[in-house]
Write a structure and sequence with these properties.
Chain lengths: ~200, ~140
């Protein structure tokens, strides 16, 4: 079973991964975006770890709901409301249970990913974070490691795609040949989940 | 001083842009074009705290609270994270005053239409319709 500490470890591991990879995320965001993805997420997840330490929510749902709210408040770019919605909806779906199982987490994450797709209007294949998240959630029933691998594969598979959402879509065919920064950071989020689980 | 015209409370208008200068200038433009006399409450929410380009949930919440007179708040945005942040705040349920709506409208033309309509005492639905109708105004 997964308790609040597990979810705190997930968020802390995500913050560390974003910190480590911030330059790469921003570099990916330079040719097809506005070169702020790494710094925006860094600011957001730094604020997430700070508020989790301060308020110390004691349920899995409480941890993710608070983290999501904090991202919406602090990021300043589109990744704030998108990741904020992902975590907040996932947290709300987990409810107030003190511990949750992996099947419950997989189901809750699917609710979160659906909310992201609704908010941004993106579908798989649009060259967005959805391309990493959907296969990861599908693979979570198997193992955390499988979810991480699926997210990484999904992020890599965005390179030949033409962007159909966000600023990159203004570039049309010129968006082809670049890996999507949002899908890349989503792969970091799933890798951090596997790390929290010790896989 | 009162914000009311003819006894009814006026709809508030919030203008969200990635740029503080754009939000403030469009607010000034829309208020100016709404003409003499009392105009509806209008507040810009531009850029991020500290002055950079981006979207601030806190500035949006503060702007909406500042223009809320109880008749609803019409929020107009430029693009990208401005749209997504307002939608995410509306989904939160308690971050914005009751009767706050995101308006599907072009930013500049919609702002002028919204402020003119709101200043004339139109209700929230009519303010939103006036702003959305600005899409239909072709220039060529």
């Amino acid at each position: 079973m997964l308790d609040a500490d597990f979810f705190r470890r997930w968020m802390t591991a995500t913050a560390a991964a974003v910190e480590r990879e911030a330059e790469r995320l921003t570099a990916l965001d330079s040719p097809i975006g506005d070169a702020d993805h790494g710094s925006n997420l860094q600011r957001g997840f730094t604020a997430v770890t700070a508020i989790l330490e301060k308020e110390a929510p004691d349920t899995p749902g409480g941890v993710l709901t608070l983290a999501g709210r904090q991202l919406i408040s602090t990021v300043g770019g589109a990744s704030g409301p998108l990741y904020g919605t992902l975590l907040r909806r996932t947290g709300k779906a987990l409810g107030e249970a003190p511990e949750v199982g992996v099947p419950e987490l997989a189901e809750a994450l699917r609710t979160g990913v659906d909310a992201v797709m609704q908010l941004g209007g993106a579908a798989p294949g649009d060259k967005t974070m959805v391309d990493a998240l959907v296969p990861a959630v599908d693979a979570l029933g198997e193992s955390f490691a499988a979810a991480r691998a699926a997210a990484e594969e999904g992020a890599g598979a965005t390179t030949p795609l033409q962007a159909r959402k966000g600023r990159a879509s203004y570039l049309g065919e010129r968006s082809i040949g670049h890996q999507d920064p949002g899908a890349t950071s989503s792969a970091l989020l799933m890798a951090a989940l596997a790390e929290a689980a010790g896989e | 001083m009162s914000d009311t015209a003819g006894g009814a409370e006026l709809v508030g208008v919030v203008l969200v842009s990635h740029s503080a200068a754009v939000a403030a200038s469009v607010a000034e433009l829309a208020t100016g074009l709404a003409g003499g006399g009392a105009t509806a409450p209008v507040a810009p929410a531009g850029g991020v705290a500290g002055g950079g380009l981006g979207t601030s949930a806190e500035l949006i919440s503060a702007a909406a609270a500042a223009v809320d007179r109880g008749a609803g708040v019409a929020v107009l945005t430029d693009l990208g994270s401005a749209v997504l942040t307002v939608k995410a705040l509306l989904a939160e349920g308690d971050e914005l005053p009751p009767g706050t709506r995101l308006v599907d409208a072009p930013f500049v033309e919609g702002a002028v239409a919204a402020v003119v309509a709101a200043s004339a005492g139109a209700d929230l639905a009519a303010v939103m319709a006036a702003a959305s109708d600005a899409y239909a105004y072709r220039k060529v």
